[in-house]
Design brief:
The protein contains ten helices and two strands, in the order H-H-H-H-H-H-H-E-H-H-E-H. Helices cover 48% and strands 2% of the residues. By secondary structure, it is an all-alpha fold. Strands 1-2 form a two-stranded parallel ribbon.
């Protein structure tokens, strides 16, 4: 098995080059509030909805992690991915792209054998390839966060919550594909834009919509 930690400070991109992903919050659910219907009654989904979903995120490493996880979600539910997120983080070196970019055949074999994640060879290859693209962009002085946020003018936009893709997600999908990213179709990208706060798509009656709007 490849030693992930041993590669944390080798190569052109040091571990500190990309800000760490803030710890996931699982605050006690706010009682007696109306929420988006998709979170249902699953406590982890409710906590994710209340503390994370739709919050404007400008951390390039966190944006990349969420994009990769949304790619793994293809054909599955977000609930499945969310419940596996800790295992994904352990398997993918806490989603540090500088480390994942150097994953080799031994790492791929390790990941395919890991029951805690989604064991899709195509999605695993896409994640590793995406890390290399992310690092290549950084090496050229291009900030991933600035790149993706440019498709909304650098600020969150108000969504209508009734569509699976938008002209912005279609344009960003095309740009990501041109860079070489995989599993970044317009529908996946739209869901990701909602999750990272590029689009505020909390339902009109959800208590978080106004709170998130105030952060723009």
């Amino acid at each position: 098995m490849a030693n992930i930690d041993a590669r944390a400070t080798t190569g052109p991109h040091e571990l500190a080059s990309f800000p760490a992903i803030p710890a996931a919050r699982e605050d006690a659910p706010v009682a007696n509030e109306t929420r988006c219907g998709w979170c249902g009654d699953d406590p982890r989904m409710i906590a994710y909805h209340d503390a994370e979903w739709g919050m404007p995120d400008h951390n390039p490493r966190a944006l990349w992690e969420k994009l990769i996880l949304d790619g793994f979600q293809a054909g599955l539910s977000w609930r499945t991915i969310l419940h596996k997120r800790d295992a994904f983080r352990a398997a993918f070196a806490d989603f540090n792209p500088a480390i994942v970019a150097r994953f080799d055949a031994a790492d791929v074999a390790r990941l395919i054998a890991d029951p805690g994640i989604v064991r899709s060879r195509a999605k695993i290859d896409a994640a590793i390839g995406g890390a290399r693209i992310f690092c290549d962009m950084a090496a050229k002085g291009e900030d991933f966060a600035a790149f993706v946020w440019s498709f909304t003018g650098g600020v969150p936009v108000e969504g209508e919550g009734v569509t699976t893709s938008t002209p912005a997600s279609t344009a960003l999908s095309k740009a990501l594909k041109a860079r070489g990213f995989k599993f970044v179709g317009p529908v996946i990208v739209h869901a990701w834009m909602q999750a990272v706060g590029m689009v505020n798509d909390h339902s009109p009656d959800c208590f978080r919509r106004a709170q998130v709007r105030a952060l723009a």
